[in-house]
Write a structure and sequence with these properties.
The complex is a heterodimer of chains A (about 425) and B (about 525).
Chain A: E1 18-21, H1 34-40, E2 44-50, H2 52-62, E3 72-76, H3 79-82, H4 88-102, E4 108-113, H5 115-119, H6 124-134, E5 140-145, H7 155-164, E6 177-181, H8 186-199, E7 204-207, E8 222-226, H9 232-240, E9 244-245, H10 253-267, H11 272-297, E10 301-304, H12 311-322, E11 325-331, H13 340-345, E12 351-355, H14 358-368, E13 372-375, H15 377-385, E14 390-392, H16 394-398, H17 407-423
Parallel strand pairs in A: 1-12, 2-3, 2-4, 4-5, 6-7, 6-8, 8-9, 10-11, 10-13, 11-12, 13-14
Helix pairs in contact in A: 7-9, 10-11, 11-17
Chain B: E1 2-4, H1 12-22, E2 26-31, H2 39-46, E3 55-57, H3 69-84, E4 88-93, H4 95-100, H5 104-111, E5 117-119, H6 129-144, E6 160-164, H7 173-186, E7 190-195, H8 201-205, E8 212-215, H9 218-232, E9 235-237, H10 244-258, H11 271-276, E10 287-292, H12 294-307, E11 311-317, H13 323-332, E12 337-339, H14 343-353, E13 357-360, H15 362-371, E14 375-377, H16 396-408, H17 414-422, H18 448-455, E15 469-470, H19 472-480, H20 483-499, E16 504-505, H21 507-517
Parallel strand pairs in B: 2-3, 2-4, 4-5, 6-7, 6-8, 8-9, 10-11, 10-13, 11-12, 13-14, 15-16
Helix pairs in contact in B: 1-6, 3-5, 6-9, 7-16, 12-13, 14-15, 19-21, 20-21
């Protein structure tokens, strides 16, 4: 039952072959990112220009309708728009006017491209420029694509942030500043800001900011840490503005968070002893919290189906800090450079797969019979019905899981389905 | 372009999925980009299905456009046939694939798959989910039961009927089918085929064998029933058996068509007596707003007015295909119909009408919750909690019982309502605290002015020593007061005594206080 712990296995998947598949993908498209992005940027509205399917996706993915009038909506393209009876651009202007009249509190409006708007080649960047002039002084209007033909799930956030980067003020100051990149729950963001302040890093910004007029400046003195592994385009755009990425593993678990903070500490010349002292309490708390789930997870096998691109860092956390055995780690897209340190820490026999052919992948899951399968909501109940224990991947995106004080919660998210399996007598 | 916040219906291919997922032996190949697979979770999460919907999504990406999306479709269809070996296959395009015009019908035809292939035209930019389900069911039936001849019925055969319309993700379809099947059983009528729910494509070929059709859910089965009428001369029962009276009408119609004695099935529901019993007096004239799909909304309006004694103050539906039926129903209630799929328009109407009860969909529940109006769900779209583990039909006599319970429970019960009026200023009985039988809702937060009055202690904030002493006879008298007002009487008397600086509470003090606070 209990195989050798992963620590004794050879480590390193950084140069292992990757199984690349194409076929049916069981993933969300990039529009789904709106669900958390609109909560993060509190004066922004996300207007999807798309079909009824897009609108239906947004409300289904959100699961419940939390707000009567949320800060997102869909301009549904209709037959008359397609037949040329109505001019799509005029229609869009009309919808935006109506929206902004109704919601004068909106300071930043995103026109979000969808599969249909991309296919009919509706130029949303021109529309955004045109509307920006019209609404100058009250609302800024940007655009990005969250379409399924271009983006997978969390890539929507990447596209959104990348669209903001060119708008960021140039950082004119001489002193280096630190930027945390990626939408984090406010409570987690505040924890990190407190830690960086204690470390003595003077200027720290979060990107995206909570208000559209508080977005951080960027320039050659900017050093940035990615808080999420799916921000390839955003990182590139920041690098184009002269910012420098600090390479680190992602801040999951006691070790991951330590390493992530350490990358910043080194870049800002923080004394090593001071660093140890500052992080010690958080690190110890994280270790204690993780310990509660260890017995449940140690030696258990786990397969990740592709979902959010968080799969590789999470598999690393579960393998190195909880003794789990990753069988297959599937990801919609593998960013080798940003994940190099993560891959190096995975057991060498882990199968890394990129893309998806869901039926074939499920055949592998059935053959491997992992103790836990991390998958999307469309697959979880069917796999449970087959006797496999599952964890909904989307909870990993919607819950606070980064940093020392969430490490225990993160471990618990994986332990709970196994505990439930064990306690049920029905 | 139409600005939409929430939608009542998905795109038409979701309707096709509801038919495919309801059936056995059907596989649906949907030409669609990644992301459209979100629709799977509607079935696996809301309905807790233990199987993936039988749908293959071709999952094309931007880089495939203009190159090999057609080939992608054919590969997906071929692989799906090999893996699932369905009796029949559905193919169609989702909204995006419709724009790239790959023609799934032609592509599938060219492949000569060894099973019937039904190519669906589902115009995503014009039509919606219910229409898609109706169209899919109709196309499947046409493909599987061609011809015009019915097998002749031999004289000794039991009368039989088809139950048409139940799908996956239907509001209580699972239980309605059980209830109506039982009801027909009591009448001695056999169910020939129930479809789409639980049927195979081969079962559809047997549809013409039934004596008549029962159109349980017109939104989905009406097109098919009309075709079966034309093609095979099968009559259709169109009364939807939701509510006590409608169920009796339904039985009468079915019995007449089958030429059987209806009396065996006319056992009735508990609804009439529950409604006549005195506790229900308080239901009289409760103002109710009804919105949903046309069939459920119209049926609910009849039950609300005729069987519960409510006053229907608003009636509407989101599916324009049945607008005419709804308009007629609204006219019979003397109302302006509200036919819209704009959630904000419905919210506005509810806000303006200020009903005491809302019967609606998941959307209206959300509106009602915000406006603090009791609400029950009567129609799709619905939430996972509206798909109960227990048997909970909407149709038939048991359905009528369920309607009574689920519509009345959100309201404050009869005797309790009177008590709440009597003691409305007493914090223990405060109506803002909610009714005891609604414990699961949690108490509503109190308005600020109430909180401040409640924060005042009922006895003066004097030290214990200064508090008036209850004399034993006064205390004994207090115990004779009914328990639910005793606390109030005690506090009022203590307050009265404290205000007057009395050291002791006598029998007289008790009654002086009573007189003082009497209204």
């Amino acid at each position: 039952m209990s195989p050798a712990p992963p620590a004794t296995l050879p480590l390193g998947c950084e140069s292992a072959p990757v199984l690349r598949e194409r076929g049916q993908r069981e993933v969300f498209c990039g529009l789904t990112g709106i669900i958390w992005l609109h909560r993060k940027i509190q004066d922004a509205f996300f207007l999807v220009v798309g079909s009824r399917t897009c609108a239906h996706l947004l409300q289904s993915a959100a699961g419940v309708m939390i707000f009567a009038e949320p800060r997102f909506g869909t301009a549904i393209i209709e037959e008359r728009d397609l037949a040329g009876m109505a001019d799509c651009n005029e229609e869009l202007d009309r919808v935006v006017d109506r929206l902004l009249t109704r919601r004068p509190d909106i300071k930043l409006l995103f026109l979000v491209g969808s599969c249909p708007s991309e296919v009919i080649k509706l130029d949303l960047s021109r529309a955004a420029a045109r509307l920006s002039v019209k609404h100058a002084g009250t609302t800024r209007i940007l655009n990005y694509s969250g379409s399924g033909i271009e983006t997978t799930f969390t890539e929507g956030e990447d596209a959104c942030l990348a669209a903001i980067v060119p708008e960021l003020r140039a950082d004119a100051s001489d002193a280096p500043s630190l930027m945390i990149v990626g939408a984090l729950p406010d409570i987690v963001e505040d924890q990190f800001l407190r830690l960086f302040a204690e470390l003595g890093i003077a200027t720290v910004h979060s990107f995206p900011a909570r208000k559209s007029d508080a977005m951080p400046p960027v320039g050659p003195n900017t050093r940035f840490l990615l808080a999420q592994p799916f921000l390839g385009e955003t990182a590139r755009a920041l690098e184009d503005r002269g910012a420098i990425r600090l390479d680190a593993v992602f801040p999951f678990g006691a070790e991951g968070t330590t390493s992530w903070l350490h990358a910043a500490a080194m870049a800002f010349g923080v004394d090593e002893m001071h660093f140890r002292r500052v992080i010690a309490p958080g690190r110890e708390r994280a270790k204690r919290a993780i310990e509660h789930s260890r017995a449940r997870l140690d030696g258990k096998s786990i397969t990740f189906l592709p979902d959010s691109q968080l799969e590789v860092p999470l598999a690393r956390f579960l393998a190195t800090e909880l003794g789990m055995r990753p069988v297959e780690v599937g990801t919609p897209y593998l960013h080798r450079r940003h994940l190099a340190r993560e891959l190096a820490l995975l057991p060498a026999d882990t199968l890394i797969s990129e893309g998806q052919d869901v039926d074939r992948q499920l055949d592998r899951v059935r053959a491997a019979q992992p103790d836990l399968t991390v998958c999307g909501l469309g697959l979880a109940n069917p796999l449970e019905a087959e006797g496999l224990t599952t964890k909904w991947a989307i909870e990993l995106v919607f819950s606070p899981i980064h940093g020392f004080d969430q490490a225990g919660d993160l471990a618990e998210l994986f332990a709970r389905p196994l505990r439930r399996r064990d306690v049920l007598r029905v | 372009m139409q600005l939409t916040v929430w939608t009542y219906e998905g795109p038409p291919h979701v309707g096709a999925m509801r038919v495919a997922a309801a059936m056995e032996g059907v596989h649906y190949v949907l030409h669609a980009p990644q992301g459209d697979t979100y629709a799977d979770l509607l079935f696996t999460m809301i309905e807790r299905r233990g199987k993936r919907p039988p749908v293959t999504y071709t999952t094309f990406q931007a880089r495939d456009l203009g190159k090999d999306t057609a080939e992608l479709f054919q590969t997906a269809a071929r692989d799906a046939y090999v893996r699932f070996t369905p009796q029949a296959m559905l193919v169609s395009a989702s909204c995006t694939a419709e724009l790239i015009q790959d023609d799934p019908a032609g592509l599938a035809d060219a492949m000569r798959l060894p099973c019937p292939v039904v190519a669906l035209e589902l115009p995503s930019y014009q039509r919606k989910e219910n229409w898609g389900a109706a169209e899919t069911f109709y196309r499947l039936v046409r493909t599987m039961s061609p011809g015009t001849e019915r097998a002749p019925r031999s004289a000794g055969d039991r009368p039989s009927a088809n139950l048409l319309g139940p799908t996956a993700l239907g509001f209580r379809h699972r239980d309605d089918v059980i209830e109506i099947t039982r009801l027909l059983e009591t009448l001695g009528i056999a169910v020939n085929v129930t479809a789409p729910l639980g049927a195979t494509p081969d079962d559809l070929a047997r549809l013409p064998a039934a004596g008549f059709n029962i159109c349980l859910y017109p939104e989905i089965a009406d097109t098919t029933c009309r075709w079966l009428e034309r093609q095979f001369g099968q009559k259709t029962v169109r009364t939807v058996p939701i509510g006590h009276g409608a169920t009796r009408d339904f039985i009468a119609q079915v019995a007449a068509l089958a030429d059987v004695d209806p009396s065996a099935a006319l056992t009735g529901s508990n609804l009439p007596w529950w409604s006549r019993s005195v506790d229900s007096t308080y239901l009289t004239g409760k103002r109710v707003f009804i919105f949903g799909n046309a069939t459920h909304a119209i049926a609910a309006a009849r039950v609300a007015r005729d069987e519960l004694g409510f006053e229907v103050v608003g009636l509407g539906c989101y599916n324009r295909e049945f607008a005419r039926d709804l308009r007629e129903a609204a006219a019979s209630h003397g109302l302006e119909p509200l036919i819209t799929d704009d959630y904000l328009a419905v919210e506005e109407a509810i806000q303006a009408l200020q009903p005491e009860l809302v019967l609606g969909t998941q959307m209206e529940r959300h509106i009602a919750k915000r406006l603090r109006i009791p609400c029950a769900v009567i129609s799709a779209p619905f939430h996972v909690q509206d798909f109960p583990a227990r048997y909970s039909p909407q149709m038939g006599f048991e359905g009528a019982n369920v309607l009574f319970d689920t519509w009345v429970h959100p309201l404050v019960m009869g005797l309790e309502e009177h008590l709440l009026t009597m003691f409305r200023d007493d914090f223990e009985f405060s109506d803002a605290g909610g009714a005891s039988h609604l414990g699961h809702c949690g108490p509503a937060p109190l308005p600020a002015d109430r909180v401040s009055t409640m924060a005042e202690p009922s006895s003066p904030p004097a030290s214990a020593g200064e508090r008036a002493e209850w004399q034993s006879d006064a205390e004994r008298e207090l115990l004779k007061i009914p328990f639910f007002v005793r606390g109030k009487a005690r506090r009022n008397t203590e307050k009265f005594a404290a205000e007057r600086g009395l050291a002791a509470i006598t029998l007289d003090t008790l009654y002086d206080a009573k007189a003082h606070y009497a209204r």
